[in-house]
Amino acid sequence: MSSEDAMEPMSAQFFTGLGVAITGSGSATPETNLDNAALSQIVETSDEWISTRTGIRQRRLSSAYGSLNEIAAQAAQNALEMAGVSPQEVDLIILATSTPDDLFGTACLVQARLGATKAVAFDLTAACSGFVFGLVTAAQFIRTGVYQTIVLIGADVLSRWVDWGDRRTCVLFGDGAGAVVIQANARDRLLGFELRSDGSQNASLTLAYQGQAHPLLENLAIAQGTFSPIGMNGQEVYRFAARQVPEVIEKALFRANLSVEQIDWLLLHQANQRILDAVAQRLKIPNEKVISNLANYGNTSAASIPLALDEAVRQGKVQANHIIASSGFGAGLSWGSAIFQWGR
Ligand code: ACO
Predict the structure, then answer these.
(1) pLDDT tens readout for residues 46-77
(2) What residue segments make up the domains of the chain, in order of their start?
(3) Which one is catalytic: 36, 78, 269, 272?
(4) pTM of the model
(5) Are 92 and 119 in contact (CB under 8 A)?
(6) Ligand 1 proximity of 330 Cβ (cutoff 6 Å)
(7) How many whole angstroms separate alpha carbon 183 and alpha carbon 280?
(8) Which fold is adopted by the domain 15-189?
(9) What is the CA angle 127-150-65, rounded to 5?
(10) CB distance 308 to 276 below 8 Å
(11) Which residue's CA is minimally distant from atom 15 of ligand 1?
């Protein structure tokens, strides 16, 4: 074993000899910016309330004519350019989203926009955990040798489903997209993961279909309707995240044979600065290692982790071989952690 090998953490989890690496990142956000002062003209709130309780100062909103597939494809294009991979080389596109342009799926529209003619494409729905769940899903296709090059996108346009009259929720969310290119690699850079779900707490955070009976025949009625705006029990969600996220990161670190001290960056779903602070404090991770950009974007759901990752990479903060502990958490309830090293 060379001295370089000796310094590399070895993935202990399901390692088959086929490694996984994240070789590029990209992001895209709508141009329209809504800051807290402007939001205070829509609902009774203030910059002071929003920024002290959440850390959010502004958010980007998709225009009336914007689409999810447009920003998702732009983020993917940027990630492919960083990785030096052409769209025609892509085997699989996974689009993690809860706000599709089409309930039948939006990933195929992204495939068409990219010109990724060889790729199969599908949507994955796991709310704010979507990126982490998607990363682990992508890794399985590579580790089994089925695919070599995968684009994973996390994108959401939650502004479509927020109740803009509800100040308890509308101040929290924003629109955006982030993407990574995941490739087969000699070294395995996905070091460990843990995924969890608990449907018994589903009511804490919902964007649920509400149908009304629509009679077709005398003895036959079906339901037709639409989705109700986002409903959230803020304090329950806060308690859930502060308790479960440190635990799931510790489990993923255990699977990776790593200690908390070996993490270079803590990269959490950008829900709320108070959640980021609570998790970092619980894990005894210093603030300098916590990636946070929610002040500028709010909670962009499945997009938040790849959007923050892409900014940190392009700012030169995240560098080759850095170890990143990521965690997504949200509706389902669902949560998970993936520990990975940046670069090939
Ligand atoms: N502006 C001004 N006042 C407000 C606002 C607002 N935007 N929203 C609520 N208030 C008021 C309430 O009406 C209430 O007033 P009252 O005491 O007169 O009734 C008071 O502020 C306190 O309301 P709470 O809901 O108790 O506020 P809390 O301190 O719990 O903060 C928050 C709310 C920020 C949502 C908090 O619960 C939280 O951080 N929860 C985590 C949830 C989260 O981050 N969700 C994101 C989506 S889920 C995900 O991505 C994981």
Answers:
(1) 999 999 999 999 999 999 999 999 999 999 99
(2) 15-189, 192-201+230-341
(3) 269
(4) 0.94
(5) yes
(6) yes
(7) 30
(8) Peroxisomal Thiolase; Chain A, domain 1 (3.40.47)
(9) 55
(10) no
(11) 168
